[in-house]
Amino acid sequence: MSGIILFDGICNFCDHSVQFIIKRDKKAVYKFTSLQSDAGQEILRKHNVPTNIDSFILVENNKCYYKTSAALRICKNLNGGWKLLYGLIIVPKPIRDYFYSVFAKNRMKWFGQRDSCTLPSPELRKRFL
């Protein structure tokens, strides 16, 4: 199994989240691309992702997952106790996504943003589209 994670490349929290995932994804299950990149835009078009989606997006087995569904599915494949968070999938999606949306709406205010995407190191570059 492999997946592609699309993230907001100018969001500091999103960038830190990608670094967090990379450190715990020892099997290199995931590849990454920013929503703003050409590759990201192509994936969004290919999967008919609504333009109002402001979220981590996981494309896995040709299906898109948004918000908490994406985050929890990603946790399921990370090393360590992070797998246990997948158990939160039993919480009804509207409740999970409500809290996700509140956080997402404020993430730039709380964590700031960059002028451009962070460039990955040469050894990690192969994991970015």
Write a structural description.
This protein has helices spanning 12-24, 38-46, 67-76, 93-111; strands at 3-7, 30-34, 57-60, 63-66. The model has no long low-confidence stretch (mean pLDDT 86). With 129 residues, it is an alpha+beta fold. Strand 3 and strand 4 (63-66) form a beta hairpin. The radius of gyration is 14 Å and the shape is globular. The longest helix has 19 residues, at 93-111. It has one domain. Strands 2-1-3-4 form a 4-stranded mixed beta sheet, with helices on one face. It contains 4 helices and 4 strands, in the order E-H-E-H-E-E-H-H. The two termini are 17 Å apart.
Secondary structure layout:
Layout: E1 3-7, H1 12-24, E2 30-34, H2 38-46, E3 57-60, E4 63-66, H3 67-76, H4 93-111
Parallel strand pairs: 1-2
Antiparallel strand pairs: 1-3, 3-4
Please describe the biggest sheet, giving its number of strands, its sense, and whether it closes into a barrel: 4 strands, mixed
**Strand and helix order:** EHEHEEHH
Total domains: 1
- Give the amount of beta strand, in percent: 5-15%
The residue ranges in which pLDDT falls below 50 over 5 or more consecutive positions are: none
Principal-axis shape equals globular
Distance from N terminus to C terminus (CA atoms, Å) equals 17 Å
Q: How many alpha or pi helices?
A: 4
What spatial order of strands do you see in the largest sheet? 2-1-3-4
